[in-house]
């Protein structure tokens, strides 16, 4: 629905618009109704009807092989390594604004136009910056933080200044688009029944192992460490209650020794995050090249609240080395965040502007420093 309205606005603005549906999934169960997932056969038919209504050409581009390699296989390997990945980040990074944009530019198009709720703003020198959308409740700048300066030069987000999703729905209905009442997509699109644990169990070898508390004492057993995520409370099936009788939570997953660490809720509070695979949404802040600390806000979930923080980039190699551009993003949180897991994404903001992002490698509690 968002994409259809975005296309309609692009047509009205005088652009030469072509509708493209991405065929990403060849797996069984991709034809389903309701709001779970996206990029299904049902969605393809909806897109065709919207393009027909707008009088623009419609094509289906098959990116299923690349989607499997860059998103699905990455999702499995990250869980196998004990991390909690965000497949939507990878899809935006490697499919919608890499594979799709590369093909579009090669065919002579100027930009990829989507229904994301985010905004591209030009600075005084004309460089693109990524900002939050007007409707913060639907803001999707977090999952777009992987976009680079070059990609932002070729992005068009017509819904950026729309005050609310309700207004977009009303516009879709007014334009006679059949998707006006279509529910929002949610959950992981390539897991058709929503059972992530069961889906992973078919692809990752699970072996029983120990559940230990924060002191290292064994308090239970698990059927496979990779099925657990930091912050999880339910389904632990511990044989021994905590001394204070309070619930325990997953603090850490250690795939190397097949161990799950649990402990009290207070130890989920994280004060420092270290991130890898750092990228900047637009030009990097000047401090990124000097290693100086800069003030920002940090957000670790798509619809989480940003918290005040300070960040700095530590080079991974000496200046002049071939990989000196790589580094580790160190984020010190002024307000601790709860249940931050390796594999998640930390996105840095200054006001409404997205500075950049990194994949969380370690998250440290003020009370419990995890080994790096």
Automatic annotation (TrEMBL):
Its main location: cytoplasm. The active site is at 91 (nucleophile), 189 (cysteine persulfide intermediate). SUPFAM superfamilies: Adenine nucleotide alpha hydrolases-like. Residues 273-360 form the tRNA-specific 2-thiouridylase MnmA-like C-terminal domain. It is found in: Cytoplasm. Its EC number is 2.8.1.13. Residues 199-263 form the tRNA-specific 2-thiouridylase MnmA-like central domain. Residues 138-140 are annotated as: Interaction with tRNA. ATP binds at residues 22, 115. It catalyses: S-sulfanyl-L-cysteinyl-[protein] + uridine(34) in tRNA + AH2 + ATP = 2-thiouridine(34) in tRNA + L-cysteinyl-[protein] + A + AMP + diphosphate + H(+). The record marks 116, 344 as: Interaction with tRNA. It holds the Pfam family tRNA_Me_trans. Keywords: ATP-binding, Cytoplasm, Disulfide bond, Nucleotide-binding, RNA-binding, Transferase, tRNA processing, tRNA-binding. InterPro entries: MnmA-like, MnmA-like_C, MnmA-like_central, MnmA-like_central_sf, Rossmann-like_a/b/a_fold. PANTHER family: MITOCHONDRIAL TRNA-SPECIFIC 2-THIOURIDYLASE 1, TRNA 5-METHYLAMINOMETHYL-2-THIOURIDYLATE -METHYLTRANSFERASE. Catalyzes the 2-thiolation of uridine at the wobble position (U34) of tRNA, leading to the formation of s(2)U34. Belongs to the MnmA/TRMU family. This is tRNA-specific 2-thiouridylase MnmA. The lineage of its organism: Bacteria, Bacillati, Actinomycetota, Actinomycetes, Micrococcales.
